[in-house]
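[agent] plan:
  1. take the single chain provided in the ticket
  2. run structure prediction with default settings
  3. attach structure tokens to the ticket
  4. add a short note for the reviewer (M.T.)
[agent] executing step 1
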Amino acid sequence: MSHPVSPNTVLANALTHAEDVLAPRILSCPPERIVLVVGTQINGAPHLGTSLVQTLAFAMAARLGDRFGFPTEVLFGALDNAPYVLGADFLTGHAYQRAYAQALGEKAVGALVDALYQPLFTALSRRLGIPHRIETYTQQQASETYRRTWLQLLPYTDAVRWWLDPSSGTPHLRVPCPQPSCGWAEKHAERTTVRLVDYEEALVSAVCLHHGPYEVTITPTSEGYLDLATLYRNLVKELSLAEDEGTLYVMVKGGDWVFGSNLVDDALRAVGLTDRSRLPARLFCPQIVTDTGAKLSKSLIRDGHTALPEGAEPWMLDTRQWPGTVTEYADWLLSMADILLSDPRHFFRSYSAAEFGRLTAIPSPRSAPLS
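[agent] step 2 finished; step 3 output follows
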């Protein structure tokens, strides 16, 4: 096993250990426990970058627990609001989507998460002794805290709308059509409007691809599905997690999230929240990139827009093709996590897929794939 040769950076030069970046938040207001939150769109098999960020969440939880003595756990957010199928209204040109949650249903989504993600989480949890739990976006948006936070933000829509959607100023709110077996929602929310009825009730009006105009009432306990676009969702999630006093939540994200988080921070300031100690911390993990420096993207490669980078292996795009067992995959990922966490210079940077493959030995192909 080899180690990378990493350049110094401003952040790395200020740290002795990678976890030092979280020390100010932990020491300034010591929590009762620490929860590392890592979310993933469940739109197909995970790729290497997804598995790496998830593994680093477990590894960082172990390091924080050992160093600071607080109980730690990992919370995996399975984003089942990812588009499953796209459509269009040919008369108006409006784009529509039907998400995994509406297209598959709760039972099938659960089976998908169990098949693609649970085995690795179980292996990592056992190896490190870090408990974990899984929460779908469907479950998250149905919680009273999440919905009440969204309702409380509605009066500030004008203040945050350009931060959440700098192109149009329309934060995308999707409330799927409630007709049985439907669930279509306007993707870009051009004809979706919301009116705050009182402090705990909002009326959303939208137009279904198949059923025309409809209205859905959203309250802290109602059944209407509240689907928010990425930046909007993260704003509401971070604010709702802040309600859990005594717990420090750490949002664990890939390095590509650095730029988007700036907009979320500006939205937080726009609603008057300048005290970051009330909100979750963030940890940006190394990003896996191609030889051009672009994020390793399974969708671009799958759709033929770019080729598999030289030195990369097919399993890096579909981890089910890993030539070994789940336990061996978890052990390999943890060995990589040890390398990345051994020096802040190794952690706060990106890696090409080819370089990642060279850092440690990968088992030769077997007859049985990862399962």
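[agent] step 4 note for reviewer: Confidence is low (pLDDT under 50) at residues 364-369.
[agent] ticket updated
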